Amino acid sequence: MAQLLGAHPQIEGWFFTLVRFVFPLLALLILIRAIRGLLRVPRAGERWGQLALPGGGSIPITRWENILGRAPLADIRLDLPTVSRQHAALIREGKGQWRVEDLGSKGGTKVNGKPVSGSAPLQVGDTLWVGGVELLFLPLSQEEEEHLAARRRMEQPLPMWPSLIWLTLFQLLAAVQFFLKSEEEGWAPLVLPALSVVMWIYFLVMRGAGARGFEMETIAFFLSTLSLAVTISSAPGAAVKQLIAVVLGLLFMLALGIFMRDPSRIQKMRWLMAAMAVGLLSVTLVIGKTKFGASNWIILGPLSFQPSEVAKIFYIFAGAASLERLFHKRNLGLFMVLTGVCLLCLALMSDFGTACIFFATFLVIAYLRSGDFATLSLITGGAAFAGLLVLQFKPYIFQRFASWGHAWEAASTTGYQQTRAMSAAASGGLVGMGGGNGWLHRIGAADTDLVFGMLCEEWGLIIAVLAVLSIVTLAVFAARVCGVGRSAFPTIAACAAGSLLVVQTCLNVFGAMDLLPLTGVTFPFVSNGGSAMIASWGLLAFLKGADTRERSSFVVGKDRAEKPKGGGADEKA
Question: What is the pTM of this model?
C-alpha cells in the first residue's frame, strides 16, 4: 500500500489529508467503549454478612476490614455519643474466619458479654457489644444472596473487541503514514503493527483464561501506541527499545497482579517493598548521573534508566500494605518515616517533580484511612515550608519556578521549552499536522517533558485531550471502587495509583503549557522512556486489583473460602 501511494503523489496527498481526520474519529471509537465500561462500575459491591440492629434492620458488611465507630469515614458508622470515633475493627481472615479488635475505645467492646482485650474471634450468631450498642452477627439470607448474584451477573464488563479492531486500524494507518512521510524512520514504523500483535496475543490468552474486563488494558495500549508514534517522530532509533519496554511493562503488570492474588503475601512483603523503594533511591543518590538538572539517572553502558519510576510501585505497595491496618497507630508513623526518607532522597537528587508525586500519593493514602484532614493540612504546610527551603539551595529548581507563568518573557532562556511547546500545540489545531510532520521534536525533551505539545502538534488537540481524559478515567474508576472495594489493600493501592497518574499527568501537561512549573515528569504511558513505561504498566496492576466485577480481573481470584460455622456470611455473591 505504501509503494502504491508513493507512486501517485496526488493520491498520497489525499491519504494524508484523510487520515488526519480519521485518527481522531478512531480514537473516539476506541475510548468511548472503554471509558463507558469503567464508569459502569457497580456501586453496591459485595456483601459478606450483616450486623442486625436491636430495633430492627441491619447493616451490611461489604469489606474484609471494617472500622466500626462514630467517625464519618468509618466503614460501619454508629453515630452515638457512647461510641468512639474509631471504636473497633471487624476483620475477615483466612478461610472465612472473622475477628473483632478493640481500638482503645472508651466504652469498650464485648463478644457474647465478654470484654474484648486485644482481639477475639467472632462467629455467626454471636452478639457484638460496641459502646452499649448490641449487634448480632448474621449471614446473608438465601434470598439476599440470590438477589446479589443475579445483580452481579448483570454487571458484566463490556466486550472490547470493537475497540481492539479500531485500535488495530489506528496502528496500521499510523505505520503507513510514517512509511510514506520519508525514509528517515527506516523500519521504525514496524513497531506499530508489532504492538498490534502483542496486544492481540495478550487479549486472546487472557480471554482464554476466563478474564473478561479489558477496558484498562485497551486504554493503556492506546496510550502506548501514541508513545511509539511520538518516539518514531523524535527518536526512530529508540522505537524498538520503547516497544520492548511496553512488553516488559505488560509482563510486569501480570507478575505483580498474580503476586497480589494472595493477600497473605502482601503483609509479608511490605517491609521488603519499603526497603526496595528506599534502596533504589539511595543507590541513585550515590551513583546517579545528572540529566536536565536532576541526578536521577543510572547509566550502565548503552542503557540508562530512572530507578525513581520503579520506586513508585514499591512505595505504593508498602504504603497500602502498612495502612491496611491503620487502626494500629504506629503504622501511620512508619509510613510517614518511609515517605520522609523517600522525599529526602529525591530532594538531594533535585528531582522536585517526583517528590511532588510521592507527597501527593502519601496524602491520598493517609487520608483514605485516617480522614484526619487537620493533621494532613499541618503536614502539607510543613512540606510546603520545606520545599521553599529546598528552592533556596537548588538554583536549578528555583529558576524553573522563577519563569513559571512568565515563559514568554524569557523565551530564549528559562522559558525556551515552554514557549516552543505552546507554539507547536497551537499550530496542530484540532486534528494535527500528521505523524512526523511537526518541528517540536527538534527541541530537547520534546518526547518526554513536552510530549503533550508534541501530541497536539502532530496528532491534534482532540487526540491529546483524549489521552488526558484516559488517565482521568482511570482515576475516576479508582475513586468509584473506593466505596465498594472488597479489601483495604487493593482499594488504597488503586486510589494511590490513580492519584499518582493524575498528578503526574497534570504536572507534565500544565508544565509544558506554563500553567505549572516545568518539573520534568513524564506523561504516563505516552512519554518516551523505558523505565517510565514499565512503571506505568505496573501501576495498572493496582487498578486491576480493585476491580471486583465478576471475572473482570486476573488479579482478583474467586473467593472459595469455607463458610464460618452457622451460616453463609462468606459465600461470595
Answer: 0.87
